[in-house]
Amino acid sequence: MTQIERARKGEVTPEMEFVAQRELLAPELIRDEVAAGRMVIPANKVHLAKNLEPMGIGIAAKCKINANIGNSAVTSDAGEELDKLHAAVHYGADTVMDLSTGAGIDEIRQTLVDASPVPIGTVPIYQVVQNLNEFLDMKPQDMLDMVEHQAKQGVDYMTLHAGVLIEHLSLTMNRITGIVSRGGSLLAQWMMHHRQQNPLYTHFEDLCDIMYQYDVTWSIGDGLRPGCLADASDKAQFAELDTLGELTKRAWAKNNQVMIEGPGHVPMDQIPMNMERQIEVCHGAPFYVLGPLVIDISPGYDHISSAIGAAIAGQHGASMLCYVTPKEHLGLPDAKDVREGVIAYKIAAHAADVARHRPGARDRDDALSKARYEFDWNRQFELSLDPERAREMHDETLPQETFKSAKFCSMCGPKFCSMRINEDMRKMAPEELTELATSVAEAAK
After folding, report:
1. pLDDT tens-place string over residues 100-152
2. Domain range for residue 391?
3. How many CB atoms lie within 10 A of CB 61?
4. Do both 99 and 190 map to the same domain?
């Protein structure tokens, strides 16, 4: 049985217990959220038997982040992808997607699943493309076979663009960037060539049966997501979203776990509406948001512009944020880019958790603030999202060990440190300060 099926029967599974401990929530609440479809626990039975640490994605849980890695036809191999996986997990990614499109896809995926304590996601159509001499020769059975093959390897969740319908394609013709999803564009090409409906839609129940066998979580892809601000919140995007709402109910009817992928480029003022609309249309299924980027003019810094949108999305109901690296739109990320992307999105997700008052979300902030006031530099480093970076920056100008206890940093120096000045003020008794304020006020009359 799947997690959602067991939850519907009133069972609290060991995986739900584990998630409850991580989230500081009651196990019964986790069970109820999974049963209602508002939370997923991506845990393929094959991966779970190896080294997977269960985690929950849903509105009641802390906001999660995903890191995309994977090779291309141009560069990278299994060793490099393993380095990226280690970087992603080390800096705090909650899940990792293998988006490999080059050589050695099977080897890379198996290496990642065998090494990863976090859920691994994929986009199966990429490997179908690699396996065929001509993608347009694809048959629906090719997709079914690939989904089962990857499920057997231990993949925990899969992006399948089942909501892109042939009747939606005309709605994209006046877009600036058209269909930017790789999977969405491939399926559009296939549908136009064969003059047939999306095979992922017509064979949806067959796919559900495969997912059920391994308890693979659906990540129903938004193949018509906007690729620029001008295309955001258009008829094509929302037509597909309506179909995703239908597919959510069909997957639940087959006891499949489901999350829904969301738009990639959205102006800041439209983000809350997009979050609220998805929650309503998709019946509360967790929303997995790709970004969103809030401006289009930040190549090289897209991890920053998208993290701004991600924080807003998280505050307004997104359950997981798919990171963007500095290389977005420019090239294949390396381990350094993965680090930058993960940290930017840890900031966004944590800001969302603080804003949503998640249990324990602000404890680390308050502890760091206390350490900062007490000039406990080593404790500040430990509590930072990226301790190595914090220590490096401090030590650029004051590397000696004696400065780890100094009551100043190189920005203010010893004379201008406001916290040291505050500490001197606090040496006065409160009644002395009150008496001083009263005397000044009297003198001013």
Report:
1. 999 899 999 999 999 999 999 999 999 999 999 999 999 999 999 999 999 99
2. 360-406
3. 28
4. yes
